[in-house]
Each structure stands twice: as structure tokens, then as C-alpha cells.
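Hi F.,

I've been meaning to write this up properly since the lab meeting, where we talked about keeping a consistent format for the predictions we share between groups. The idea is simple: the sequence comes first, exactly as it goes in, then the C-alpha cells exactly as they come out, then a line or two of notes. No screenshots and no reformatting. I'm using this chain as the first example so we have something concrete to point to.
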Amino acid sequence: MTSDYKKIISILGHEIPLGTSKEINFNIAKLHTATKIEVPVIIERSKKPGPTILFTAGLHGDEINGVDIVRQLISRKINKPKRGTIICIPILNVFGFLNGSRNFPDGRDLNRSFPGSENGSLASRVAHRLMNELIPEVDLVIDFHTGGASRFNAAQIRIVNNQPQLDELAKVFAAPFVLYSKHIVKSFRNACFQLGKPVLLYEGGKSSFVNDNISKVGVEGVKRILSHFEMLNSQVKANPPKLETVFVEKSKWIRAKKSGMFKAKVAINTKVKVDDILGQITDPYGKVHHTVKSTIEGYIINVNEASLVYQGDALFHVTKILKS
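Output, unedited:
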């Protein structure tokens, strides 16, 4: 990242010098009752110049595990840097968070609305302001997500391939897994990449739930990143990872061959072999007893925790080809 760090940065129309602690209200819109909806943006700048790192969560309103991680960064004062700047936005989609919904009130997915438009939909306008009034000042983004619906993700970092800087940062973060995934058109990650802003996307857990272990892995990863950039304040300790990170080049979904009542028999992070039993599908009448087996060797990185599944539903996400 650049060493030409600014003494004054401009965030959402506010000029913020070094040595400043500031909370800015990102004005999103008003409810039908004329009540303002504002997203707090918490900014901590050391007196000593350094990188600017942005931590975001709640891009999808029902993915609250990420919100818990950014909350911990603030409450435990991890966001007070020894040098440089740390910006925290715990909830980007406050509408969805309030309603337990993935999307914005206009039905749009904020993470498919970037880089946005000044005169577009509500989601598009929020995306536009974020990309034009905040992201230009940022050197690195770490964005926290969870698995969708009932699918529980193992703690993982997602990056694009052939980006040595991202490989290095992913190793520093040291989540159990790193998945190479292509950018999705109109996603936040893609929009940042187009501006030359590196993004680590953290996935873990499932929507509408907070898992303590997923939060812990996320917080510990952040501390290692901050330590890497010499930004971690002296009151906080970065712990070395317990396990070596597995880089996943390819993976495969194992899907339900029958509809019925589903029970998983293996846990996240388990290494399985071909023909290992992963779960069982039964019917309410005691006639169907279908065993779900692994068709490949690898690690379980996602488990569907739904009790009822239909034929074709994704049940397990298993790594396929690994590299050290």
C-alpha cells in the first residue's frame, strides 16, 4: 500500500486530521414517518501517519455475525490504531438489519448495486455515496459476510486469484480457508477492485445468527492484519494462528438426490474421503432412508442446517483441489 499518507482525509464531506476520533452519521434516507435513517461511521486516526483500513459489515441486513465482529473491534478498542486510520461501519444496510431482511426496502440487493448512481434507486444512491465519498480515502477494505439462509459457512477469506498482495494479506489474516472466487458484477468488492482498492471478504456462519467461534476467528484475523501494518495499539495482542490456512482452488457442492427430512452427520472443517457418510435424508413415513455420501476428498466448508430439503438443494460444500 502507498506510503504517501494524508494528514487530512475527507469522509462524507467531513475533513478529518490526524489524531482525531470522530463519528459521522451517514444519512441514508427517511422513513415514511419522516424519521431519519442514519448509519454511524466510526473513525479513529492516530497522530502518526499510516494506512487507512475500512471494516464493513451488514451489507446484507440479515448477516449479523459480521456486525458482531465489527462491534467487537469498537467495544474492545481494537479500532484505535497505533498509526494510520481505522474506519468502522458495523451496519451498511440498516434497513435490512431492522427488518431482518437481506435487501433494501426497494427490493434491491445493495451488494448488486455498485458503483451506484446519484439519481438511481435507493440502494444505488447509497452505493454511489459510499464509492465517491469514502472509498477514495481507503487503502484496504475488509468486508464481513455470512452464509445465506440455513447454510453455515466455515470461516474463510474470499479473494480473486493472481493477486499476490491479496494472497499475502489472506495468509496474514489466517482464516482456516481461503477461497479463490471471481468478482461479481456490481458487487462492492468488484467496485473497490476497479478503483484499485484491495478487498478481503470474510465469510463465516449463517444469516440471522451470531456464532462465537466465527466472531473470534474474524477478530483475531483483524488483529493480525493490523499488527502486519504496525497499526495494532499496545493494549491489544495479536495471537498466532492455531492452524495453517488451506488455500482452495476448486470446490464442489454435494446436492440432495431426494427430498425429505435432512440431518447432517459431519461438522464444518471436517476432512472427508470418497464414500464417507455426510448425512441422511428420510421421509415422514419411515419409508425413505437415503444416505448422503461424499463424492470427493476434501474439507467440509459449508453445511446446510435446514431440517427439510428438496431434491437438488445444496447440502455440503467440499474443497476439491488444495494448494499449500
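Notes:
Residues 128 and 157 are 25 Å apart (CA to CA).
The domain at 8-228 is CATH 3.40.630.10 (Aminopeptidase).

If this format works for you, I'll send the rest the same way.

G.
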